[in-house]
Amino acid sequence: MRPLLVIFLTVLVDLIGFGLVIPLLTFYSEAFGASAMQVTLLMACYSVAQFFFAPLWGALSDRWGRRPVLLLSIGAGTLMLAGFAASTELWMLFAFRTLHGVFAANLSVAQAYIADVTTPENRAKGMGLIGAAFGLGFTVGPWLGGELSVFGLAAPIWAAAALSALNFVLALALLPEPPSKGDRVRRVLDPAAVLTVLQHPSVGLAVLLTFTLTFSFAMMESTFALYEEHFYNLNAAQVGRALGVVGVVGTIVQGGLIGPVVRRFGEATLVRICVPGMGLTLFLLPYAPPWAALIAVLVALAVFNGFLNPSLSALISKGASASEQGAVLGTNQSLSALARATGPVLGGLLFSRVAMPASFLTAAGLLLASTALAWRATRPQAS
Questions:
Q1: Can you tell me the distance from the alpha carbon of 22 to that of 240, in angstroms, rounded to the nearest whole number?
Q2: CA torsion sign, 216 to 218 to 219 to 223?
Q3: Domain locations in the chain?
Q4: Are 306 and 255 in contact (CB under 8 A)?
Q5: Rg, Å, the chain Cα set
Q6: Where are any strands of DSSP class E within the chain?
Q7: CA torsion, points 316, 319, 323, 327, in degrees to nearest 10?
Q8: pLDDT in tens, 316-359
Q9: Is the pLDDT of residue 6 over 90?
């Protein structure tokens, strides 16, 4: 249990630092003269870097070990955050945000770490710890980032850099190398890795579903602060508090409820229910004014998302052999990063050129249409 606790703390501290930046990224970049389209492109460049480097870190962790790759990525990410906070021009924001994305593409390594130290029957609970770290990180991070913004928009970013440095020290002192399960992949990034994983007989459709879901969610996520700022006149602190509510609910779901609910219904059933559930909540989101209606919709969104992500990750992990864990999870994370890179671009175009709610409604439509894919992707596991 100790390795799981340490990896949980490592991911948690990293995500608190990441969450600090989320609510004010829109306001911070607008202070440098960024347009709405440039705001979403700034979010996209981070994920473009993750798309290319997530499978590399996953494959390198198969070869060199999980611990050294995590230490390298956390340490370098600290320096990139500091550079982002110290930027004086818009192009510098893009440069340091992209480089931070390169080194922050280590979630696949954390997932592979959990796969190394858990049994298949406990895999969903282990993946739920990462989900709980996300929930808690997005509870404390956005709220704290919003509150620190009163000291200047760069203050939360400096705080994120300090937390990242603390994370490096924590991992260096406490994180052991997990035992190897089977022969780890002895290669770096294969250009055909994505196609190979998508053709995987057990997990290919589930990975494709992950891409579709992440793309839809990223469209909404990239324009949420813009929409709340320009339509409802919310400030950075208020956006941070709204996202903090999502984090609280996500922590409860993924930290405590996911285990018994999975044992009762199974991962496949949860995926089939939560995909259309998220679609419905995203459809309602632009029509939910602060505060009661907005919080109600965000709570529902957090519940569906809290059950969906660890369940889908567990299905993918269970469908991959021990020697494939790093490469498969890395490719899955890479495709998720591609979705987070392209989703904001489309979201920004819809927000700027069509209508402010258009990104929410398009994302909702894609999720509702993905219900059929969810049933097909979970059919082998359900049977």
A1: 8
A2: positive
A3: 2-175+196-382
A4: no
A5: 19
A6: none
A7: -30
A8: 878 777 767 667 777 787 787 788 889 999 999 999 999 999 99
A9: no
CA dist 27 → 30, 33, 96, 105, 236 (Å): 5, 10, 17, 24, 7
Question: Burial letters for 147-167: b for 16+ Cβ neighbours within 10 Å, e otherwise?
Answer: bbbeeebbbbbbbbbbbbbbb
Q: What are the distances in angstroms from CA 54 to CA 30, 48, 69, 153, 334?
A: 29, 10, 11, 29, 5
Query: What does the alpha-carbon distance between residue 47 and residue 24 come to, in Å, rounded to a whole number?
Result: 18
Residues 6 or more apart whose CB falls under 8 angstroms from that of 297 comprise 281, 284, 285, 288
316, 332 in Cβ contact below 8 A? Answer: yes
Assigned token pair, 3:
């390795």
**Helix ranges restricted to H, the chain:** 2-21, 25-30, 36-64, 66-85, 90-103, 107-117, 123-148, 155-174, 193-198, 204-232, 236-252, 258-265, 267-284, 292-319, 325-349, 358-369, 371-377, 379-382
Q: Could you tell me which of 69, 124, 98, 12 has the C-alpha nearest to residue 330?
A: 69
HSE-CB for 277 with a 13 A CA cutoff: 18
Alpha helices per DSSP H over 253-324: 258-265, 267-284, 292-319
- Identify the CATH number of the domain defined by range 2-175+196-382: 1.20.1250.20
Distance between CA atoms of residues 188 and 62, nearest Å: 9
Q: What is the pLDDT of residues 233-268, one digit of tens each?
A: 999 889 988 888 887 888 788 777 888 999 899 999
124 token code pair = 């969903």
- Cα within 13 Å of Cα(207), Cβ side: 28
The token duo for 133 is 């770290």
How many C-beta atoms surround the C-beta of residue 119 within 10 A?
8
